[in-house]
Design goal:
This protein is mostly helical. It has a single domain (3-164), classed as Ferritin, core subunit, four-helix bundle (Ferritin, Up-down Bundle), CATH 1.20.1260.10. It has helices at 3-32, 40-66, 73-89, 96-124, 131-164.
């Protein structure tokens, strides 16, 4: 296998992995969404995030298809199982919304890093035509990470206020 063939193989594996990451993001948000209803701004933003993740997943499918392949059902199943186990760790608790938001902030950092790595892999694999799509997804993740960090204090304050009235 030549270096460029190996780079392409690594890149395609990265695309499949990221597709699984987006699938897990969707599943996690959908599982937690009802418990965010007392925080209308967060709830609305996370509903938007589901749509954005589905759009990013479709972009990844388009890129994979352009290279004559598709997402791996096995990887998605494993990612889903891992996500379900992670969800059990954050079983409903009084401060669940705070814990979930902190976990989401960490997850966003992971996604931004993943897209940045995919951009590097695409260039190494000679898939320069894919870079714009990957950069778009990366910038969307960066924007959401910034929103989460900027709104964290307000959500914590709302949580404290809700707790005081109980």
């Amino acid at each position: 296998m030549t270096g460029s063939e190996r780079a392409k193989e690594i890149y395609l594996t990265g695309l499949r992995n990221q597709h699984g990451v987006e699938a897990q993001a969707i599943e996690t948000i959908e599982r937690e969404l009802d418990r965010m209803e007392p925080y209308p701004e967060l709830h609305a933003r996370m509903k938007e995030e589901i749509i954005r993740s589905k759009t990013q997943q479709a972009r990844l499918e388009t890129l994979l298809s352009g290279h004559g392949t598709s997402p791996s059902a096995t990887k998605e199943m494993v990612t889903s199982i891992v996500g379900k186990v992670a969800g059990v760790v954050h079983l409903p608790a009084s401060d669940e919304v705070i814990k979930n938001l902190l976990a989401a902030i960490g997850y966003k950092a992971y996604e931004v890093g993943s897209y940045k790595a995919l951009i590097t892999m695409a260039k190494a694999a000679g898939a320069d035509g894919d870079v714009q799509s990957l950069e778009q997804s990366m910038h969307e993740e960066m924007e959401m990470a910034e929103w989460q960090l900027n709104h964290l204090p307000r959500i914590v304050e709302a949580f404290i206020s809700r707790t005081e009235t109980k």
